[in-house]
Write the structure tokens for this entry.
Amino acid sequence: MTILVTGGAGFIGGNFVLDWIAGCDEPVVNLDKLTYAGNLQTLASLQGHPRHTFVQGDIGDRALVERLLAQHQPRAVINFAAESHVDRSIHGPGDFIETNIVGTYKLLEAVRGYWSGLPDGGIRAQGRAPTESQSPTKDSFRFLHVSTDEVYGSLAPTDPAFAETNRYEPNSPYSASKAASDHLVRAWHHTYGLPVLTTNCSNNYGPYHFPEKLIPLMIVNALAGKHLPVYGDGMQIRDWLYVKDHCSAIRRVLEAGRLGETYNVGGWNEKPNIEIVKTVCALLDELRPKADGSSYAGQISYVTDRPGHDRRYAIDARKIERELGWKPAETFESGIRKTVQWYLDNPEWVANVQSGAYREWVSKQYAP
Ligand code: NAD
Ligand code: DAU
């Protein structure tokens, strides 16, 4: 059996592919367009690996996706591919509409064609792991769509955390495009019976995170002696989850999630941005003290707020905990320490991202 992962050269998809290959014997076909956010250096340890096939391409290229599905006969497709950065969506929404909405639609259509040609596998209890037979059937196949908590909009300070039953109220071009993709996935299940699962996760952090996002940007800017730009008053709240815990949640939903259901994923770690930035500074003060003895916190600088900035996100993770028995392995304290240490231990990955050299880093095995 094989799985097809899209966006597997990005932050979460890359971590997912590395963990998957390390954790089981099942091959992965990894389809990624290699936008600015795709980084093959993240997958350097898999060069030449017999169970990892990398294909550079677009989820919106229906002929390519159809060919990959026919050739590899995956038992599941896991869709990480997306434009993911809110600030970029504000400055230029076009790519977000193209990949997150149109791309997801074309991917769904290619997958629907493949799935409808699979043999019937007899009736199985819903929620059973699709791993029993040696080739996929209509019953065992899964399409898992990876989405975000941002589709639910913004919470007031005393509002309860986002549950799966919350109304969709996306506020940025990014979250609106993800909300649209979630609706398409839902409709392909309701109308055509495609066996889908959707996860809506809170803010991830961890290794291989592109330094345009808050935590890695603060780490690399601090080390480079640059300003640490905090938007507005820095009191916006995000709910943080270590990326490996998001990956374990996706594996669990793939294994046992109920068809057509959505699962919110989070680690009950609400924190204001300024606290995150100060925590990163304190860890760097400890692990890589500055020569003059001053704190990295001295580099913090408050800057103009993000337009339409959502004030608070928080995930109610009780459904996935109760129904699927999933729990994160890391606390915020353990996860953020591992993350800062990872950036200190991987200066080459960081330097290549900062210089742009990672775009040219295509080994023989990965050459398109
Ligand atoms: P990322 O930007 O780091 O990676 C996205 C990957 O998708 C890149 O490798 C990129 O090259 C690829 N890609 C982009 N357009 C493509 C296309 N048209 N065809 C094929 N590949 C394409 O993003 P991420 O942070 O790893 O997020 C992955 C998924 O998880 C996204 O769907 C995102 O919405 C969702 N998500 C992210 C977070 C988070 O905190 N980062 C939280 C919840 C959900
Ligand atoms: O909630 C899940 C979402 O989390 C994902 O769906 C998105 O793909 C992911 O990018 C992330 O979105 P955010 O906008 O929350 O993440 P970002 O790291 O861009 O910003 C986190 C918070 O920090 C946000 O309130 C804006 C603020 N910020 C961000 C940057 C880059 C700053 O104050 N300064 C900065 O320089």
Remarks:
- Residues 123-128 have pLDDT under 50 and may be disordered.
